[in-house]
Design a protein that fits this description.
CATH superfamily: Dimeric alpha+beta barrel
Shape: globular
Helix content: 25-40%
CATH class: Alpha Beta
CATH architecture: 2-Layer Sandwich
Number of domains: 1
Number of helices: 4
Number of strands: 6
Strand content: 25-35%
């Protein structure tokens, strides 16, 4: 059974930096995509409006945010990528200290209409 998570993050409100960020994502490093696969992330999409990002992750039953975070912390290439991305990214005002992507709460779903769930099961 696939689980789906929605997360949000801001970018610097600078058209030049936003364009650079998008160029990096047109050529994501192979080590980053490998780390996503290894963590059990089956599909990941990032959308942008203005300087707000919205990410949708579809993950396997084995996926764990804690395990992914530990794996990322031990991977020098992922750490290098994350340092580079912080050049462009800005934490949401309500994010906890050090938190980047913030989980979103689902408030509506059609046709099932199940409110107030962070995780959607497909």
């Amino acid at each position: 059974m696939t689980r789906r998570y929605a997360l949000a993050l801001d970018l610097a409100d600078d058209p030049r930096l936003i364009a650079e960020y998008e160029r990096h994502h047109a050529r994501v490093w192979p080590a980053i995509e490998q780390s996503l696969r290894a963590a059990g992330i089956d599909r990941l999409e990032v959308y942008r409006t203005g300087n707000r990002l919205f990410m949708v992750m579809e993950v396997s039953p084995a996926f764990s945010f804690d395990t992914k975070a530990a794996s990322d912390a031990a991977n020098p290439q992922v750490q290098e990528w994350e340092r580079l991305m912080w050049t462009y990214q800005r934490a949401l005002p309500w994010a906890r200290p050090g938190e980047k992507w913030v989980l979103m709460d689902r408030i509506y779903a059609w046709p099932e209409g199940s409110p107030n769930r962070t995780v959607e099961e497909a």
